[in-house]
C-alpha cells in the first residue's frame, strides 16, 4: 500500500505528473499566440531587409572544391561564391558586403526557408519537388552538371555494368540516392549503399576502401579526386551519367524584386562572355564598345532602374568578378586544380547550354 | 484555498481539454504559416513511395515501399543497435567494475585510466575512431580473411552463413520458448537434485527441437563472392559494428561509475555483519551487497541505457541507416522537416517514457518488498 514513506518516495518519482502538463499548456498557448499573429511574407520584404542590414548573407557549402570552399587564408572562393559576390556588388557596389554561412546539404534549404540566409549558392540541384514544394525558387542555372561515379582504377571497370554487387557511398541530402536507385535498378545491377552525413566522412571511407563506387555530381567527384587523396591516378571517373543535375542559386518565394536581381546578375555574367567583355576591357568598352556592350555596361540608361539598382550595376560586377568564362576558368577550369572542361557549360554559340536573355 | 493558482483548482478533465486545445492551436497556426509560404504540409507524404534504398534492414525493404515503412525500418535499426549496445555495455561495465573494486593496484589503475579517457573524449570522435580503424585495418572484399569456409572478414563487414529454416521457423520458436520455460522451472525447483534436473532439462529441449524440425531440415546458406559483393548468408556491417562498439564503450564507462558508486553506497555495517557471520568476501558481495546496490543503481543505469538509445542518432555520421539517418533522407526528399521531426520526437519520447515507467514500477515493487 502506498502510504507514508513509500508515498513520499513514489510521489517524488511521479512528481512529473504535476509540473509537465502545466508547462506544456503554457508553451502550447504561447506558441499558438506567437504563430497565429505573425505576419506572412509580403513582396519586397527580403530586398528591403538586405538593404537595411547593409550586407548580403549567402549560404554556401562547407567545403566543395571549386564551388565554395575557404582557401588557405580563410577567404571563400569558388564559382558559387563569385555569384554571391556579384549579387552583392550589384546591390551595394562592393564584394565586401557579404557574409558566408557554411551549410550542410541537410540544413541548406531549411536555413533559406527560415531566413537565416538570403541567397543559397550551394550547388543545389533543381528538381520539381524542391522548386514547388519548399517555398523556394531557383533563379537560373549557373552550372549544368550530372551525377556520375568514381571507382578505383584497379577494378578495371569500363562501365557501370561491370560492377555487379558493388558498395556505393554517397552523401545524404542530395538527389544522389534517388538517382542511384533509379539507374541501378533500371539496369538490374545489384548494389549495397552506405550513406554518410558529411563529405569528409564520405571521403575518408571511400579512399580507405570501404566502398567501390563514389556517386556524386561529376564536379564534386573531380574536386574529391584532385583535393582529397594523395594518389589521384588510382581513381577514375567513369563516363556513365546517372542523372541530370542542374545547379543554380536559390531564393525564397515572395520577393520578386530580389529574385529578378539574382536572375539578371547571372544573366549579365553569361552575356558578358558572349559579348567578349572581360574584367580587363570593361572600362574601355563602356565608352567605346558596340551598342550591346555599352547597354550591358550601363552607358545607356534604363536597365538598372527597372531592377531598382544603379545603371552601372553590371559594369561593377564584370569589372570586379569578370565574365562567366573568367569565373569558370579561375575556379573550376584551366587555372584551377580541377581542370573541368566547359562541356555543357560552354556558351550556346560554342555547343553548350549557357544562353542568357539579352540585357 | 485562495492562495492556490487557478490551474490547480481545475479538475483533470478541464486540464486535459485546455492542454489539447493549446497544442492543437499551435499545430494549426504552424500549418497556416507554412502554407502561406508555399511550403508543403501534412503527413500525406508517409504513403508515398520512398524512391530510395536502405543499406541494411531487419525486414524486407524495396524502394517501391512507402516512406512509412522506411521509417519503420529505421526504428528497427535503431532498436537493434541499441539492444546490442546495451548488452555489450553491461558486459564491459561489469569487467570494469570488477577491475576497479579489486585490490590489485594494476587492474585498478587500468580501470580508472580507461574510464577517464573514454568519458572525456566526445562520443562522435570516438565513433569516427572505431569506424576508421575498422575500414583501414580490414582487407578488401577480394582479399577477405577467411578462417573457415563460409566466414569472411573484410572491410565490407563480417559475413557469416545463416540458417534457413525452410518454413519451420514459427514452430521452432514456439517449441523452443516452451522448452526454455520448462527448463527454467526444472532448474529452479527445490525438489529435484540439480544434476538430474539439468539432464532432464537438456533432454526435454533436444526432444522438442527434434520434433519441431521433423521433416523440415534446416539448410545452411553460405555467403559467396559474386562480382564485388557477397550474396547469401548474413552480415555485420562495419557501420553497425563501429556504432555498437563505440556506444557500448562510452556507456560502459558511465555504467561502471554508477556501479562502483552504488556498491560504495551500501552501508559498511552490512559488510561487517556479513563477515561476522563467517561469509567469505565473494559471498558477501554476491548475496548481501550486490542486491542492495542493484536497487540503488537501477534508475541511473536505466538513464544511461536511454542515453545510449538517444546517442545512437549519431549513426548518420558514420553511415549506419538508423531512424534519424532515414528521417533526414525523407526530409530532404520531401522538404517536410517539421513533420519528420515530430515523428522523431514521438518515437523517442514514447520509447523513453515507456522504459522509464517500467523502471519506476520495478523500483517501487523492489522497495515494497524490502519494506
Question: Number of helical runs of chain B?
Answer: 13
How far apart are the termini of chain B? 35 Å
Oligomer: heterodimer
DSSP, total strands of chain A: 12
Question: Which blocks of ≥5 consecutive residues of chain B have pLDDT under 50?
Answer: none
Element pattern of chain A in H and E: HHHEEEHEHEHEEEHEHEHEEHHHHHH
* N- to C-terminal distance of chain A: 86 Å
In terms of DSSP E residues, the strand content of chain A is: 15-25%
| Class of secondary structure makeup of chain A | alpha/beta
Would you summarize the structure shown here?
Chain A has 359 residues and is an alpha/beta fold.
Q: What key phrases describe this protein's structure?
A:
heterodimer; A: 359 residues; alpha/beta; 10-stranded mixed beta sheet; two-stranded antiparallel ribbon; 15 helices; 42% helix; flat; B: 371 residues; mainly alpha; 3-stranded antiparallel beta sheet; two-stranded antiparallel sheet; 13 helices; globular
Topology:
The complex is a heterodimer of chains A (359) and B (371).
Chain A: H1 4-14, H2 16-36, H3 45-53, E1 56-61, E2 69-70, E3 76-77, H4 79-92, E4 98-103, H5 108-114, E5 119-125, H6 128-133, E6 136-138, E7 143-152, E8 166-171, H7 176-186, E9 191-196, H8 199-207, E10 213-217, H9 218-227, E11 235-237, E12 243-252, H10 256-274, H11 282-288, H12 291-296, H13 303-307, H14 313-321, H15 324-331
Parallel strand pairs in A: 1-4, 1-5, 8-9, 8-10
Antiparallel strand pairs in A: 2-3, 5-12, 6-12, 7-10, 7-11, 7-12
Chain B: H1 6-9, H2 12-36, H3 67-101, H4 105-120, H5 123-137, E1 152-154, E2 157-160, E3 162-164, H6 169-188, H7 194-213, E4 219-221, E5 224-226, E6 229-231, E7 234-236, H8 238-265, H9 268-276, H10 281-311, H11 315-318, H12 323-334, H13 337-370
Antiparallel strand pairs in B: 1-2, 2-7, 3-4, 5-6
Helix pairs in contact in B: 3-4, 3-8, 3-12, 4-8, 5-8, 6-7, 8-10, 9-10, 10-13, 12-13
Amino acid at each position: 500500500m502506498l502510504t507514508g514513506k513509500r508515498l513520499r518516495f513514489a510521489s517524488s518519482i511521479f512528481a512529473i505528473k504535476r509540473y509537465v502538463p502545466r508547462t506544456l499548456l503554457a508553451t502550447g498557448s504561447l506558441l499558438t499566440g506567437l504563430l497565429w499573429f505573425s505576419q506572412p511574407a509580403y513582396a519586397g520584404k527580403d530586398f528591403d531587409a538586405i538593404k537595411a542590414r547593409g550586407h548580403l548573407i549567402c549560404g554556401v557549402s562547407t567545403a566543395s572544391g571549386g564551388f565554395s570552399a575557404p582557401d588557405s587564408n580563410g577567404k571563400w572562393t569558388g564559382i558559387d561564391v563569385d555569384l554571391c559576390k556579384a549579387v552583392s556588388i550589384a546591390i551595394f557596389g562592393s564584394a565586401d558586403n557579404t557574409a558566408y554561412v557554411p551549410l550542410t546539404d541537410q540544413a541548406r534549404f531549411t536555413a533559406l526557408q527560415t531566413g537565416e540566409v538570403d541567397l543559397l549558392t550551394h550547388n543545389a540541384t533543381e528538381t520539381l519537388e524542391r522548386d514547388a514544394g519548399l517555398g523556394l525558387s531557383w533563379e537560373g542555372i549557373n552550372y549544368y552538371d550530372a551525377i556520375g561515379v568514381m571507382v578505383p582504377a584497379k577494378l578495371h571497370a569500363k562501365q557501370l555494368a561491370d560492377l555487379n554487387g558493388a558498395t556505393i557511398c554517397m552523401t545524404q541530402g542530395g538527389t544522389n540516392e534517388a538517382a542511384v536507385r533509379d539507374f541501378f535498378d533500371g539496369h538490374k545491377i545489384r548494389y549495397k549503399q552506405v550513406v554518410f552525413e558529411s563529405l569528409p566522412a564520405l571521403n575518408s571511407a571511400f579512399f580507405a576502401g570501404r566502398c567501390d563506387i563514389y556517386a556524386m555530381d561529376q564536379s564534386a567527384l573531380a574536386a574529391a579526386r584532385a583535393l582529397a587523396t594523395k594518389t589521384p591516378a588510382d581513381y577514375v571517373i567513369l563516363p556513365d551519367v546517372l542523372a541530370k543535375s542542374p545547379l543554380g542559386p536559390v531564393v525564397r518565394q515572395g520577393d520578386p524584386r530580389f529574385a529578378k536581381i539574382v536572375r539578371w546578375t547571372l544573366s549579365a555574367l553569361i552575356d558578358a562572355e558572349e559579348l567578349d567583355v572581360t574584367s580587363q576591357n570593361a572600362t574601355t568598352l563602356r565608352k567605346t564598345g558596340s551598342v550591346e556592350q555599352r547597354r550591358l555596361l550601363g552607358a545607356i540608361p534604363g536597365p538598372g532602374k527597372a531592377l531598382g539598382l544603379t545603371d552601372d550595376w553590371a559594369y561593377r560586377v564584370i569589372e570586379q568578378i569578370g565574365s562567366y568564362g573568367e569565373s569558370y576558368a579561375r575556379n573550376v577550369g584551366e587555372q584551377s586544380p580541377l581542370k573541368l572542361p566547359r562541356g555543357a557549360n560552354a556558351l550556346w554559340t560554342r555547343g553548350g547550354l549557357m544562353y542568357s536573355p539579352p540585357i | 484555498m485562495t492562495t492556490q493558482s487557478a490551474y490547480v483548482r481545475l479538475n483533470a478533465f478541464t486540464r486535459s481539454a485546455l492542454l489539447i486545445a493549446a497544442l492543437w492551436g499551435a499545430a494549426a497556426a504552424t500549418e497556416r504559416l507554412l502554407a502561406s509560404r508555399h511550403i508543403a504540409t501534412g503527413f500525406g507524404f508517409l504513403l508515398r513511395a520512398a524512391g530510395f534504398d536502405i543499406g541494411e534492414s531487419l525486414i524486407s525493404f524495396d524502394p517501391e515501399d512507402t516512406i512509412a515503412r522506411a521509417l519503420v525500418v529505421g526504428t528497427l535499426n535503431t532498436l537493434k543497435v541499441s539492444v546490442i549496445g546495451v548488452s555489450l555495455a553491461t558486459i564491459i561495465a561489469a569487467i570494469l567494475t570488477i577491475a576497479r573494486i579489486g585490490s590489485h593496484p594494476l587492474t585498478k589503475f587500468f580501470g580508472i585510466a580507461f574510464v577517464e579517457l573514454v568519458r572525456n573524449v566526445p562520443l562522435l570522435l570516438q565513433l569516427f575512431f572505431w569506424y576508421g580503424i575498422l575500414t583501414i585495418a580490414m582487407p578488401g572484399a577480394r582479399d577477405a580473411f577467411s578462417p573457415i569456409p563460409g566466414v569472411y572478414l573484410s572491410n565490407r563487414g563480417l559475413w557469416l552463413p545463416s540458417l534457413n529454416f525452410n518454413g519451420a521457423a514459427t514452430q521452432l520458436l514456439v517449441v523452443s520458448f516452451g522448452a526454455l520455460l520448462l527448463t527454467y522451472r526444472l532448474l529452479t525447483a527445490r525438489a529435484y537434485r540439480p544434476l538430474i534436473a539439468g539432464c532432464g532439462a537438456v533432454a526435454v529441449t533436444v526432444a522438442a527441437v527434434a520434433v519441431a524440425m521433423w521433416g523440415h531440415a534446416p539448410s545452411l546458406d553460405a555467403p559467396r563472392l559474386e562480382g564485388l559483393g557477397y550474396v547469401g548468408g548474413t552480415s555485420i556491417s562495419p557501420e553497425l559494428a563501429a556504432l555498437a562498439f563505440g556506444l557500448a564503450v562510452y556507456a560502459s564507462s558511465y555504467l561502471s561509475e554508477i556501479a562502483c558508486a552504488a556498491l560504495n553506497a551500501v552501508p559498511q555495517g552490512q559488510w561487517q555483519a556479513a563477515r561476522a557471520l563467517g561469509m567469505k568476501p565473494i559471498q558477501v558481495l554476491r548475496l548481501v551487497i550486490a542486491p542492495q546496490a542493484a536497487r540503488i543503481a537501477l534508475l541511473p543505469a536505466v538513464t544511461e541505457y536511454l542515453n545510449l538509445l538517444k546517442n545512437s542518432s549519431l549513426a548518420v555520421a558514420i553511415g549506419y541507416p538508423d531512424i534519424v539517418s532515414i528521417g533526414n533522407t525523407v526530409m530532404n526528399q520531401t522538404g517536410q522537416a517539421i513533420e519528420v521531426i515530430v515523428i522523431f520526437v514521438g518515437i523517442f519520447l514514447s520509447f523513453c517514457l515507456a522504459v522509464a515507467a517500467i523502471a519506476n514500477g520495478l523500483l517501487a515493487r523492489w522497495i515494497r518488498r524490502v519494506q
